[in-house]
Amino acid sequence: MEPTLHEGDRLLVRYAAPPRRGDVAMVRFADGVVAVKRLEHHDHDGWWVGRDNPVEGRDSWSAGAVADDAVLATVRLRLWPRPGRLSDPAAGR
Question: Edge to edge, what strands does the sheet with 34-43 contain?
């Protein structure tokens, strides 16, 4: 999720929170991999998730939509090392 998150960041997550477009969330891909991804849009297949770094990682374009029940939690805050809310890098474009 760089540039938004970096390896080692500590996050406060909320389980069972209704996910919204643009949220950063913990998701489980169909193969069982759990990752932190941005929720881009929702359709009949579930949530399409994206990555903030276009050259690394995986997203729905490579792994397909994530089922509604596979959105495990939404990220509320970064606790450490730079406490605060997460920004959307696309918002600055």
Answer: 10-15, 71-80, 24-28, 34-43, 46-50
Say which CATH number the domain at 21 has.
2.10.109.10
Task: Give the residue ranges of DSSP H helices in the chain.
Answer: 60-63
Binning the chain into helix, strand and coil, the percentages to the nearest 5 are 10, 40, 45
What whole-number distance in Å separates Cα of residue 70 and Cα of residue 26? 8
Res 93: pLDDT: 41
30 located within any domain: yes
CA 61 to each of CA 8, 11, 44, 47, 93: distance values in angstroms, whole numbers, following the listed order? 26, 25, 16, 11, 21
Domain count, the chain: 1
Range of the domain at 24: 10-82
Question: Residues 5-21: what's their mean pLDDT?
Answer: 94
Which tokens is 77 given? 């805050």
Of 10-14, 36-40, 51-55, 68-72, the range with the lowest mean pLDDT is: 51-55
